[in-house]
């Protein structure tokens, strides 16, 4: 069908994203109902991917595959998070926002920026007329996505089962993939979106390479802002004085899946420089005996 607003659908996807998030923001603000927040974010990715694929109408194999990967990821995560919050009954992230319109609005604006920015690779691929043959970058990207998707979905399910078990009440999750990473779900999410970018490389030309801002933005977001720092702070406040937790934190990689026996024996400078063991992850941890 061709161009809508601009040849890369950037304006269109921005308008659609803002409108979609605004709809859910109104529901949240008026009804004080925040259980659809994560669902709104995840399904927005699905909407953008399908919309750009259909509007362009070229249906190149690469476009269809990347769209399908985004749809699978978005629906899986959206439904999982919706079912989880309906089961748990509340989202503590919004305890301070429900009665603060300004903070709530900022959150939804940021979510719109997140969706639009991270979607850039699939948006640009779906808008392109170029259709080079399948290359090593495509295969590599698909493998990265598959590995990341399996890691994220597995970690989510393992933690849900752990948290739902009465015998684990008041404990930190250290089973399954959580033995090898303190945040294996985030590792999976970062890996799969870098996979989407890598699979888009054969199509990119000139300024289109700026779509790399998508996975960069996601990585920085999870490493420094709304992902790992918040969860580390919460866990440290709950378990920071428990010797077993301190050992788990010292011996377990914050992101990349690694055997604890290997990670525990690496020098601290190496962990910080190459494995994202950042000082801000320990800011709420009691400092007695802290030596990593």
From TrEMBL:
GO terms for cellular component: membrane. It comes from the Eukaryota. Keywords: Membrane, Transmembrane, Transmembrane helix. The chain crosses the membrane at residues 12-33, 39-57, 64-85, 105-125, 186-204, 210-231. The keyword Transmembrane helix applies. The keyword Transmembrane helix applies. Gene3D superfamilies: 1.20.120.1630. This is Uncharacterized protein. It comes from Morella rubra. The lineage of its organism: Eukaryota, Viridiplantae, Streptophyta, Embryophyta, Tracheophyta.
């Amino acid at each position: 069908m061709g161009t809508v607003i601009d040849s890369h659908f950037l304006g269109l996807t921005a308008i659609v994203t803002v409108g979609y998030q605004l709809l859910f923001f109104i529901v949240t603000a008026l009804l004080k109902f925040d259980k659809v927040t994560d669902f709104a974010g995840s399904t927005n990715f699905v909407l953008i991917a399908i919309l750009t694929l259909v509007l362009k109408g070229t249906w190149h194999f690469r476009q269809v595959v990347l769209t399908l990967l985004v749809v699978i990821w978005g629906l899986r995560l959206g439904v999982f998070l919706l079912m989880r919050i309906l089961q748990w009954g509340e989202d503590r992230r919004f305890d301070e926002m429900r009665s603060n319109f300004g903070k709530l609005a900022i959150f939804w604006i940021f979510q719109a920026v997140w969706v639009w920015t991270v979607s850039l690779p699939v948006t640009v691929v779906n808008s392109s007329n170029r259709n080079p043959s399948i290359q090593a970058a495509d295969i590599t990207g698909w493998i990265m996505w598959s590995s990341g998707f399996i890691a994220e979905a597995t970690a989510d399910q393992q933690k849900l089962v752990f948290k739902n078990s009465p015998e684990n009440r008041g404990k930190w999750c250290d089973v399954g993939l959580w033995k090898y990473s303190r945040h294996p779900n985030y590792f999976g999410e970062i890996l799969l979106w870098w996979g989407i970018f890598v699979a888009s490389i054969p199509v990119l030309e000139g300024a289109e390479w700026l779509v790399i801002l998508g996975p960069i933005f996601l990585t920085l977001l999870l490493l420094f802002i709304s992902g790992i720092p918040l969860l580390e702070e919460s866990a440290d406040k709950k378990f920071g004085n428990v010797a077993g937790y301190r050992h788990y934190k010292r011996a377990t990689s914050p992101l990349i899946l690694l055997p604890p026996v290997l990670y525990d024996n690496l020098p601290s400078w190496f962990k910080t420089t190459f494995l994202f063991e950042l000082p801000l992850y320990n800011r709420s941890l009691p400092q007695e005996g802290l030596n990593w």
